[in-house]
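Teaching note: in complex prediction, the entire set of molecules is handled at once rather than each chain in isolation. The prompt given to students was simply: 'Predict the structure of this complex.' The entities are:
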Amino acid sequence: MKVQINKNTTPIVSPAVVVSVGTGDESNLITLAWVARVVSKPPVMSISIRPTRYSFPILEDLKEYVINVPFSEHVRDVDFCGTRTGKKVNKWEELGLTKEKASKVQVPLIKEFPINIECKVVQTMNYGSHKLFFGEVQAVNVAEELTDDGKLISNKLDEIVYIPRNYHSLKKEPLEKQGFSVKL
Ligand SMILES: Cc1cc2nc3c(=O)[nH]c(=O)nc-3n(C[C@H](O)[C@H](O)[C@H](O)COP(=O)(O)O)c2cc1C
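The expected output is the structure of the full assembly:
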């Protein structure tokens, strides 16, 4: 037996990330959950933003963004950047976050966050309430302690998962390795 819930609630995990946009003093931070990897080759990410956001015209102008991936310890930063507008508050300063120079884009990375994905917008699409910005990945920066010989150690990642309307932790051992069913 299943019950149908409101179709506006899609119970599937999304990441909770803080995206940086703009350069210098204009740079702003916005929390996003509508974020996904959408193409394998080349690597392309998609983010969806409402045109009413302060970050929106800044992103449209520069056509670059950085996906800063928080860990559990950064959950307050995530909530703050998703409930305050850059129109009224400098989120970098309020949260004491440090702008770090990116390698391939002009937008700064959040130094304190362990993973930063640098993207350049290659396509956009308006649909309903949001505009989708497809960004080709230019560089993926990962804290050294999360890697071994340049490879990611997935069970060290303590990323935040957003399941409407809560933040969850990923702090569990992986169930299995991708591809494990092929060998059965
Ligand atoms: C967990 C969470 C996820 C969010 N996801 C999105 C999103 O995907 N797209 C969007 O436009 N706004 C999203 N928001 C809302 C914006 O982060 C929020 O309106 C923010 O204050 C906008 O900042 P700005 O005005 O400085 O650009 C989300 C907020 C939270 C708390």
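Point out the following to students. The chain has three helices and 14 strands. Helices lie at 55-62, 75-81, 91-95.
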